[in-house]
Amino acid sequence: MAPRLDFSDWWAKDTRKGTPVVVKMENPNYSVVEIDGPDSAFRPVEKSRGKNAKQVTWVLLLKAHRAVGCLTWLATVFWSLLGAIKKRLSFTHPLGSEKLGRDRWLFTAIKLFLAVSLLILGFEIVAYFRGWHYFQSPNLHIPTSTLEIQSLLHLVYVGWLTLRADYIAPPIKALSTFCIVLFLIQSVDRLILCLGCFWIKYKKIKPRFDEEPFRNDDAEGSGFEYPMVLVQIPMCNEREVYEQSISAVCQLDWPKDRILVQVLDDSNDESIQQLIKAEVAKWSQKGVNIIYRHRLVRTGYKAGNLKSAMSCDYVEAYEYVAIFDADFQPTPDFLKLTVPHFKDNPELGLVQARWTFVNKDENLLTRLQNINLCFHFEVEQQVNGVFLNFFGFNGTAGVWRIKALEESGGWLERTTVEDMDIAVRAHLHGWKFIYLNDVKVLCEVPESYEAYKKQQHRWHSGPMQLFRLCLGSILTSKIAIWKKANLILLFFLLRKLILPFYSFTLFCIILPLTMFVPEAELPVWVICYIPVFMSFLNLLPSPKSFPFIVPYLLFENTMSVTKFNAMVSGLFQLGSSYEWIVTKKAGRSSESDLLSITEKETPNNKSQLLRGVSDSELLELSQLEEQKQAVSKKPVKKTNKIYHKELALAFLLLTAALRSLLAAQGVHFYFLLFQGVTFLLVGLDLIGEQMS
């Protein structure tokens, strides 16, 4: 230590006089200080004074106030949750519970797992309070000598530890390692897709066409020669959206003699049929080339409807067909932005546009759906379209070359994903696809969890059906080997089978299981860091959704139950694999549609519309108008649903959270707690709008 150059001591030796003074204060709050020199008052003095009883009392009261405030907040949240659960259960319709049907196997397995977990939890709580915990990470000490055994119950617990360490932990470790490997592979695939999207943005890569592709100087009149385009609107009992979709399609900017609109109505409700007929008649009198078709034999769902429409004799005169579902509202320039890409590109079979959602901000469920679908279109479809010229047709908002449909075998009724089926078969026949990210078509996403659950079941069971049916055709096709590998390994296995498998198995089964088998505990980066990073990548196409990153992560794990169940039912042809339920629509309209409806309902426009209508047609239209008003005035009764599998998994995860609390596992406890609460909210149908 360096010498201290301080001359104050030397100076004090010469000037100090008298004896040291000790000052004692009567107030016990002050300590005794000895003044040793003139500079003693300026030296740092150690604070060693004690706190009196009054100060300690105030500190304890402050801490108690904070603790009571925290407990009050937790109690308020818990009481509100219980109140919502009680209200939901009391207003649940007797038929409002989920019908399990042939999918009961998964619910039975979850219930069995939950019962075993509760039994083990009770056993572990007894062992915890008796001090029988021998697990000290990363080792487990199992008593072996008879002197350490305290009782018969203790002997049983030691036997359970031996069974757990020797026979249960190894297979769980193997399964978790397998799922983690699949998780990492899928994460790498997701990262590569994002890098490909960044490259497309950086290089500004997008399909282009000539400014005037249909100009023909030899043509008479305007000098433009437009191809014949068929527009199809398949629908089934779409009371809420038929009017806005027909209106949007009939306003497409295309020569009226070069376009035909087919309204393919599969409704089994006669009142809806009459409403759609009236709407078609209204636009037909305005000069639009539009026809109404209704099948007497309604087989094959949407594929059967489209197949029946394509069998008409007049379809031979048309070169392209555009398809829009009943809730889609294309802009007037849609055909002029899509059809020109077919010009001078004979290998092009499909042009797919992007979906945008008019109700994406309606509730939390629609916001979370918007995140997934934005990533699907912005990243997956765009990257596959640019680098592979292949992607799954989305079933709507696309234009097909009719020759490509015919050469690929047309619409088949063998699966519930007829759009993916025709896309795979067209790809095997050498046709190329183009995706237009700049061409957007307004539509709706499901606003209720019931409608969304049924939609996701169909979207994840159908691809597995298709994979079983077309695997042989892929292997024997004449396309390049790398295209076969992309179809089998990436398109089907990784993104349609592996993703729901590991998501459900790892986060809903293995993670709670490892709480009761700590020897196979999952590392923190598996349950926290990588999922958060993957969720961050998914949110990149929709940056306004970043505040919902945590709800998105938890909700995606919750939906893995439905996706896993659908994947298994499609792969093994179980009861619900060929189930098609039309997604319930709310009938949301864009701002421009609302303005057009307002203008349309003015007296002048109405009188112009009815000027050329006969008396019988006028009477029919007035009756239909009264019927629409009567339907709109009927009170809508809300029914609540109870989802058994989600509720069983909620109690399972909350049980595992209690077990992790005994072991003081912070990250695991919070993840299981929040994930369990999310399952509970979804199981009680507390997310999204309720079905009417």
TrEMBL record:
Glycosyltransferase 2-like domain sequence ranges: 320-516
Primary residence: Golgi
Biological source species: Arabidopsis thaliana x Arabidopsis arenosa
Transmembrane intervals: 64-85, 105-129, 174-200, 487-516, 522-540, 642-662
Taxonomic lineage: Eukaryota, Viridiplantae, Streptophyta, Embryophyta, Tracheophyta
Protein's UniProt name: Nucleotide-diphospho-sugar transferase
Cellular location(s): Golgi apparatus membrane
Entry's Gene Ontology molecular function annotations: glycosyltransferase activity
GO CC terms of this entry: Golgi membrane
Family: Belongs to the glycosyltransferase 2 family. Plant cellulose synthase-like C subfamily.
